[in-house]
């Protein structure tokens, strides 16, 4: 089931289940809740958490393949979408919502 994030400050943002769950986990929200809210007060911390997770993933991707992985781990696909790219529309929604004093719901 896809996630539909809503804010009175922006257009709706629809994400596939796996991507939406990952973003919610990063910001400390339960992805198992059918409906939830990110309050205006929670938005700065959510943005910081998303950007930190994206920076951490980018650092891992820069490590040489032989140093970063063991035999059992699947190699990271160079064609896959990085977290830093995936969070852009969501972070934009959060920033615009904070600027307008509006919460984000799903």
From TrEMBL:
Region (Disordered): 54-81
Alphabetical list of Pfam families matching this protein: DUF1840
The protein, known as: DUF1840 domain-containing protein
């Amino acid at each position: 089931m896809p996630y539909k994030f809503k804010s009175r400050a922006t257009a709706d943002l629809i994400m596939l289940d796996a991507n939406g769950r990952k973003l919610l986990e990063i910001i400390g929200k339960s992805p198992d809740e059918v409906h939830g809210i990110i309050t205006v007060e929670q938005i700065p911390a959510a943005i910081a958490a998303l950007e930190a997770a994206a920076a951490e993933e980018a650092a891992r991707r820069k490590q040489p393949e032989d140093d970063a992985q063991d035999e059992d781990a699947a190699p990271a696909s160079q064609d896959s979408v990085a977290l830093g790219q995936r969070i852009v529309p969501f972070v934009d929604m959060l920033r615009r919502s904070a600027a307008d004093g509006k919460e984000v719901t799903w």
